[in-house]
Amino acid sequence: MIRNLLSGDLPRSRLLSAMLLVVFCGLALAPFLVPGARSLNVAATICVFVVLVASYDLLLGYTGIVSFAHTMFYGIGAYGVGLALHGMGPSWWAIFVGTAGALSLSLVLALVIGLFSLRVRAIFYAMITLAVASAFAVLASQLSDLTGGEDGRTFKVPEILQPGFRLFDAEILGRAIDGKLITYYLVFCSALALFLFMLRIVNSPFGRVLQAIRENDFRAEALGYRTVIYRTLANCLGALIATLAGVLMALWLRYVGPKTMLSFEVMTDILLIVVIGGMGTIYGAVIGSALFILAQNYLQLLMAQASAAMSGAPLLANLFHPDRWLLWLGVLFVLSVYFFPTGIVGRLRTRALLRRLR
Amino acid sequence: MTTISPVAPQDSTLPKVRVDMLPLLLVPVLALLMLPLVGSFPTWVTLTVAGLAMGMMVFMMASGLTLIFGLMDVLNFGHGAFVSVGAFTATLVLLPMKGWVEADSILMNLSVVGLAILLAMLVTGILGWAFERIIIRPVYGLHLKQILITMGGMIVAEQLIHVIWGAEQIPLQLPTTFRGAFIFGDAALEKYRLIAVGVGLTVFVTMFLVLNRTKVGLLIRAGVENGEMVEALGYRIRRLFVGVFMAGSALAGLGGVMWGLYKETLTAAIGGEITVLVFIVIIIGGLGSVGGCFIGAMLVALVANYAGFLAPKVALVSDILLMVTVLLWRPQGLYPVAKR
Q: Which of A235, A348, B208, B235, by CA, is between 20 and 30 Å from B305?
């Protein structure tokens, strides 16, 4: 059963299994385990980022494509639903229209960019996507009549998802069953389904071809696989799933704006997570996102204490200023590209493999 | 006895390399085409000079990147970090020597800016050496890792700027005599833009002469065409590359100082913002080609300025449209480098 669900791609390391189980249970029971809006927000963000990062892993880790346009697709999804709900009022129909519109726009864009530049080398694709994504971000923040500009748009979701909604009066385990909780489980279940779907893809024959292209595209082509077509397909698939992640995020936040959806910081976050978690493993997205988002939210508290303790030395205190947490993750990123390119997950798997051989 | 016939005298000269003139014509043709569209001559002059000035600054930042890529097949996604560091280093001179900046004397203004530029180029040059040593050397030939690692280097550099100079933006004052504009008839030409054009042209001519008239330049050009052959002939291309990397970083630093003075405020993101433009320029020019990079920079900046005047909404995506148009015409960029 479990083997089928995970498409035969088990964690293959006892420690990794334990970590995944902790993350899974933590996310599944988050509303009941920890009180407060902030921690639930952290849990929902982790769910969305697992999907977003895993879809990026499909490109970077499995196919060997470096794309900087992933936030663009994420933003398209978010803006699609957001603008539809803003314009058409809170209804399920609006969500459907927004999602469908966003998905088709993403598909067309991914196809055009892919066919235009995936024929050439990886480096070229990276530069083109960077240019296109930044132009898109500028457009979204400048066309303020449509998108609300820098301020973004807040909107209402259908009644059952609104925080004020009560499914029934009784409380379960001391928690009222309100709209926020229902939205959280919508996000969680969608994320879980998408995650399992991606695991299915990378372990299918199609996924094997992608890995062959990553290892040696010349040989893959010689074996008769049209690498351009496979690359473009992977690109479109990644874009579509990123779009869905954007939809989930917009529904959770009930807000879309260029800063949270399209900024380059989101892109660097994705890069950091996928590399630190482990490229080409899909599970890396889970471990990476959980660690990263937790660090983003709670490491700063720790650093504030360190900074206060060192307030005597000005430069040192600056080094540990809470806003500088990205510095330390950047250093970790550079080190992990050098010393453990397979990330945390790859490291754990190798260790388990070595132990089994011994 | 057989007579050995002497070797036939060689043909007097090698066939001349055909110079591809078409891209060269693009810039003047574009400027002239826009004249009737803009309508008034003075406005057109102002727009064109503004475009050229911006283009020159972008060229300074892009030329190093394209040379580095051409020579060693390394694309430095962290190139923008050198721009930021250059601009921020300049504040170390410009802020303490405020008196000289505010003085109403060309000599004092020039010397303080010159000093700032010198320091910035020195610092970014040394930083470039360190960057090559620590960050890039272990990942030669691995494109995927290069992109990731230089991206990481960029993040770290940007954060370190925050650590050293603080997170607030720093206002940067333009020296007194560089302010204002010359008035020719109805056309106003900002002085600083003319200075930027002058500096940019100097950089371009110097680079052109070094590349085409000196032995080092010959080796660099040969290295771009075929690095292995240059190595086989006994030249240490590695050293050459480190030199080019340092020079390219220093040029980015120079561009950063000029750009920072132009914007008059500094944030650590200044380099990251310009990186996108720099990439578009070197794609248009043809990866690895300095001449193409120069024309690309002029084209991008001119189009941005004209579009900003004629149709502000289009200006938001004018770079991308220009890039797509050029690539549809020449998929490898204006001046494709032979090997790639």
A: B208
Residue at token pair 């680079």: B207
What pLDDT is attached to residue B254? Answer: 95
A323 touches chain B (CB under 8 A): yes
Q: Please state the pTM of the whole predicted model.
A: 0.88
Instruction: Name the more confident of A324 and B152.
Output: B152
Q: Is the pLDDT of residue A6 over 70?
A: yes
Supply the Cα-derived Rg of chain B in whole angstroms: 22
Sign for the CA dihedral angle at B135, B139, B140, B143 comes to negative
Three-state secondary structure call for residue B90: helix
Helices marked H in B73-142: 79-94, 98-102, 106-131
pLDDT (tens digit per residue) in B260-286: 999 888 888 888 888 889 999 999 998
What is the C-alpha to C-alpha distance for residues A307 and A314, in angstroms, rounded to an integer? 9
Residue A205 CB coordination number (10 Å): 7
Checking if the pLDDT of B7 tops 60, the result is: no
> Looking at residue B324, what is its pLDDT?
86
Domain architecture of chain A: domains with CATH? 2-357 (1.10.3470)
B17 band by pLDDT with thresholds 50, 70 and 90: low
Out of B138, B151, B323, name the one closest to residue A338 (CB): B138
Report the alpha-carbon distance of residue A77 to residue A24 in Å, rounded.
Answer: 25
Can you say how many angstroms the Cα of residue A6 is from the centroid of all Cα atoms in its chain? Answer: 19
Interatomic CA distance for residues B50 and B42, integer angstroms: 12
Is pLDDT at B12 greater than 70 in this prediction?
A: no
Which residue in chain B has the smallest CA separation from A60? Answer: B144
Residue whose structure tokens are 């969305």: A48
C-alpha distances in Å from residue B82, one per residue of B65, B130, B158? 11, 12, 10
Contact B291, B337 (CB under 8 A): no
Residue found under tokens 């020079």: B247
Question: Mutation test of the interface with chain B: which of A62, A123, A315, choosing the one with the most B Cβ atoms within 10 A?
Answer: A123
3-state helix, strand, coil in chain A (%, to 5): 80, 5, 20
Q: Please give the domain boundaries of chain B with CATH numbers for all domains.
A: 40-329 (1.10.3470)
The rounded distance, in Å, linking the Cα atoms of B145 and A293 is: 24
